[in-house]
From TrEMBL:
Residues 1-22 form the signal peptide. PROSITE patterns: PROKAR_LIPOPROTEIN. This is Raffinose/stachyose/melibiose transport system substrate-binding protein. Belongs to the bacterial solute-binding protein 1 family. The keyword Transport applies. Keywords: Signal, Transport. SUPFAM superfamilies: Periplasmic binding protein-like II. Pfam families: SBP_bac_1.
């Protein structure tokens, strides 16, 4: 996996990055003029083309540069001849600061990895530095090449705007060991009550029911359970209501929903010591047959399809949506999704440069096929027929293609401080050492 996706939450430095953005953007003056970060062949602005297509990548993700390079050699060869691809790399931890610096200098490259912080990406867009790629795709006639699930996820993050390109699309849910469940006489659960009954049966048989990490920042493996239970109980807008201020995490309903997960921890369903389990260990526990279920995103397919890592075999792994909750208003077809590492486009560069426009159109039309074909990467773009992928990946790709609406993860609307607080305390909740009320109070205190 190129970058462990925790719902676009990455580095603590994002908070400092966002706080100084306004100062740097004061020098930007919007996107009506200025450079694109690549020198123009004529230096005259509107209608001229840069000598190269500059792309700012991050060291931690190799799939996007690999895919763009393949496109430059094949599907987008004509676009690359007109404007050769040039890749520069940046450490993920300093990406946000670099984007601020470049934005302040009116020197953003034509393409770049979107900011670690969704708040920073939104502020760059509001300043006029980032292109509305949804509008651009519509104008270019390739909007149908963006999957509805990807568009829905992006718009949910960015106030109804599709401002990044979904070079990843991860759906999330509960993966299960088919043989283990069958051996214990357990049918695939469709409701929360059936799921907890399955947990109890596995625990009684000496099998750990759930394998999810709870160590430090990897506590997101448990907070995902909290967020999904809230969405199934109170409906798809329950977390947005907290963002909008019409509800609080400390309200009785939210506390009760968090307590439902704390109850799993009290019963030992997450294992003996979730706070000592990191992401890699949790994944390994499931893939070696020591646990019945794991909540995870489709980014784990790379590990599931690797026989060197997956001792139980990919054909023994099933995927189920987070189940419905009795009396809840949420439905099982509301699928948690995120676009992981995404691409942003400089508005200035795109607006003035026909060659860049042609490149972006070609990427939207072809990226999904090439990424799946060459890197087994599921993206938010349509895929041409005839691409051969492992059966489990194909199953998930089909599910993604059929998604019309998606929901976000627990911390999606949180500022960095609250996200860190939530994920660092997730393990304590999953071990039963922290009550739902204590957990929600702790996180709520950092919402600002």
């Amino acid at each position: 996996m190129a970058r462990v996706i925790k719902g676009r939450v990455r580095v603590a430095s994002a908070a400092a990055a966002v706080s100084s953005l306004a100062v740097l953007l004061a020098a930007c003056g919007g996107s009506s003029s200025g450079g694109s970060g690549a020198s123009s062949s004529s230096g005259t602005g509107g209608g001229s083309s840069a000598k190269s297509l500059s792309f700012l990548a991050i060291n931690e993700n190799t799939t996007i540069p690999t895919t763009l390079t393949s496109l430059s050699q094949k599907e987008c060869a004509a676009e690359n001849k007109a404007q050769p691809l040039q890749i520069k790399k940046q450490a993920q931890g300093t990406l946000d600061q670099q984007l601020q610096l470049l934005a302040g200098q009116k020197a953003l490259p034509q393409l770049f990895i979107s900011a670690n912080s969704p708040d920073l990406t939104k502020q760059l867009f509001d300043s006029g530095a980032i292109l509305d790629t949804g509008e651009a795709a519509t104008s270019a006639g390739v909007s149908d090449d963006v999957l509805p699930a990807a568009s829905s996820s992006i718009k949910a993050l960015y106030d109804g705007k599709q401002i990044v390109l979904p070079t990843e699309l991860n759906i999330e849910g509960i993966w299960y060991n088919k043989k283990l469940l069958a051996d214990k006489g357990i049918s695939v659960p469709t409701t929360w009550d059936e799921l907890t009954a399955a947990f109890a049966k596995l625990k009684a048989a000496g099998v750990q029911p759930i394998s999810n990490a709870g160590k430090g920042g990897d506590g997101w493996g448990i907070t995902r359970w909290v967020g999904n239970y809230i969405l199934r109980d109170q409906g798809a807008d329950a977390l947005k209501a907290v963002k909008d201020g019409s509800a609080k995490l400390t309200d009785a309903k939210y506390v009760a929903d968090a307590q439902a997960i704390a109850d799993l921890g009290k019963k030992g369903y997450f294992g003996k010591s979730p706070t000592s389990i990191d992401y890699a260990t949790a994944l390994n526990t499931f893939m070696t047959g020591k646990a019945g279920f794991i909540y995870m995103g489709s980014w784990a397919l790379a590990a599931f399809n690797d026989p060197k890592q997956n001792a139980i075999g990919a054909d023994n792994i099933g995927f189920m949506s987070f189940p419905t909750v009795s009396g809840g208003s949420g439905t099982a077809d509301q699928t948690p999704a995120n676009v992981g590492t995404a691409l942003a486009v400089s508005k200035t560069a795109y607006d003035k440069d026909p060659a860049t426009q042609a490149w972006v159109k070609c990427i939207i039309a072809n990226y999904g096929t090439v990424a799946l074909r060459d890197s087994s990467q599921i993206t938010g773009f349509k895929v041409a027929s005839g691409v051969t992928v492992p059966p489990l990946s194909q199953d998930i790709q089909t599910k993604i293609s059929n998604i019309k609406d998606s929901v976000l993860w627990f911390e999606a609307y949180f500022p960095t401080k609250a996200t860190t607080s939530s994920q660092n305390n997730g393990g304590l909740l999953g071990s039963g050492k922290l009550s739902g009320e204590q957990f929600m109070k702790t996180v709520s205190a950092d919402l600002g």
